[in-house]
Known about the structure:
Blueprint: E1 9-14, H1 21-30, E2 32-33, E3 38-39, E4 61-68, H2 74-86, E5 94-104, E6 109-116, H3 118-130, H4 150-159, E7 171-175, H5 183-194, E8 200-202, E9 204-210, E10 218-224
Helix pairs in contact: 2-3
Protein name: 2'-5' RNA ligase family protein
Amino acid sequence: MPDPRRGTRFAVYLCPPAGDPCYEAGSDLLGYDVRAGRARPLPEFLRPEDQADAGPYGVHLTLVEGFFTDPALWPGIEAELRACVACLSPGAVLTLTGGRVEVWDGGETWVHRLEANAPLLVLHTLLLARLSRFVTASPFADKVTPTSPASEQARMALLHTPRGLDSWQPHFTLVQPYGGGDPAGLRARLEALTAPHHTQTFRSVALFEKREGEERWRVRAEVGVA
């Protein structure tokens, strides 16, 4: 598997605009303002090691995973992203509903899980398929084995990820990997934090990048929905 700390990587995410209450709350929780490229102090109930995995990404909901690519391919990636978004019908909006806090990975990963509307699910599927040709390596290369479900093996072979499509679980990662001793208290804080944001609407998607040798991600481009 490629070293996730090395190499150029791209991803397509939903990311609320700077100043949006959801964005500001999430940036404070993660300890990183990805749009400004600045660290923020973590809340008192979290330690730096509790956000070691989630923090460097900033606030985001994944449409296309953080794949490795060749920097020479950036113009093609951006053009393909814009072409895909342009295929949505005029007036289409990307809506998330049914928000709730879920705990995954044996208590290590805490997420704000939501449900996607039809235009968002279609866009996720289209982008995952069309951007796969720009992938030079996958962070999931060692996650799929001959004993993995056939659908995961097929996705990996075609799309470089075992996840997504009809198994997609839209979510904002809130805390990862949590190792503290107060999960009940953490849940109460996260449920209060996310309660105002259980329904969200987006009119743009964000192309993220992580540059060779850098720890944190950044926003490279924003593409609006017509």
